[in-house]
UniProtKB/TrEMBL annotation:
<protein>
    <submittedName>
        <fullName>Beta-lactamase domain protein</fullName>
    </submittedName>
</protein>
<dbReference type="InterPro" id="IPR050855">
    <property type="entry name" value="NDM-1-like"/>
</dbReference>
<dbReference type="Pfam" id="PF00753">
    <property type="entry name" value="Lactamase_B"/>
</dbReference>
<dbReference type="InterPro" id="IPR001279">
    <property type="entry name" value="Metallo-B-lactamas"/>
</dbReference>
<dbReference type="InterPro" id="IPR036866">
    <property type="entry name" value="RibonucZ/Hydroxyglut_hydro"/>
</dbReference>
<dbReference type="InterPro" id="IPR037482">
    <property type="entry name" value="ST1585_MBL-fold"/>
</dbReference>
<feature type="domain" description="Metallo-beta-lactamase">
    <location>
        <begin position="24"/>
        <end position="223"/>
    </location>
</feature>
Amino acid sequence: MENVRPIGADVYEIDTRMAGCPGVTAGYLILADRPCLIETGTSTSTPTVRKALSALGIGPDDLATVVVTHIHLDHAGGVGDIAAAYPSAEIVVHERGARHLADPSRLLASARMVWGDKLDTLFGTLRPTEASRIRALGETGTIDLGFGRHLSCYYTPGHAKHHVGLLDSLTGDLYVGDAAGVYLPETGDLRPATPPPDFDLDAALKSIDLFRSLQPERVLFTHYGPVEDVQPILERAAEELRIWVDLTKQAKAEGLDLDHAVAMVREKTKQRYKTTEGDPTLQGLETLTGAEANVAGIMHWLDRTQQG
C-alpha cells in the first residue's frame, strides 16, 4: 500500500491520511510477537488504518496493544473504533487521559468549541472504549512486545498534561508524539507545537531533556516520520520553543492582541524555515498546529503563570 512504509526492525509507518491529506499524521505498527499500534489517527482515518493493518497481516484478533502518546484527536480520535475492530487489544494511555477515552463527552464538547463544524470533517467522533480494556500509565510503565522486547513509557508533559513518550528496547526508537514539535521531512524543518490549554514551557523543556537522557537511536514523530540525527533535532526542539516563547512575550509586552501577535511571530520566524506558511505541504499541519494555535497556547501559559 502506498501509505505504508517499512522503516526497519519490523516497524511500519502508516500514513493515516488525516482529512484526506498525506504526510500529516503517522501511526506506527510494531510487528513484534505482540503487535502494537502507536497512534490511531482520527476516527475518520480508521478505514485507512484498518486497511493498512490488514495489508500487514493483522487480523481482528491479532493486535495485542494500542497505545496513544496523548488524547488529542489527531492522535487518539480513532481509539474507540480501533478498539471495537480489534477486540483483543489492550488500550494504553496516560492516566490523565484514560477517563476521556472511556467517556469522551467532555473532550468532544471542548473540541467542538474550538473547531465548530470543522470537527466532523477533520476528526470525526471519538467513540467510547470499555474502561476494562484501558490501561492507565503513571510516570513510567512498560508495554510487552514479546520475546523480551518492550516499550518503556515515560510521562512527558509540556505539550499536553496526558502525554507520554515511548522507547523501544530493541531498536532504541523513541516515539515522541508532539512533545518535540512538528517535523517536516521534505525540508528538515522543525516547528513547535504549543497549543492551549496545556502548554507549559518548563515542563516541555524537561520532557525534551528526558528524551536526550534516554539516548535514543532514532526519533519518530507523529507529525511526521523518523529522524536519525537525534541530538541535533532535540536541541532544535528546545531552541524553537524558547524562540517562540520569547517572541510571544515581546508581543504581549507590546500590548498586541492575538491576531497581531500571530502576525508578528510569523514574520519574525519565517526565515527559520525553508517552507513558507503558504506552501501546500504545510496546509494540513498549519490547520492542526499552526502559528495561531502556538501563539494562543503560549499566551495562555503566560497569563496562567503571570510571566512576560
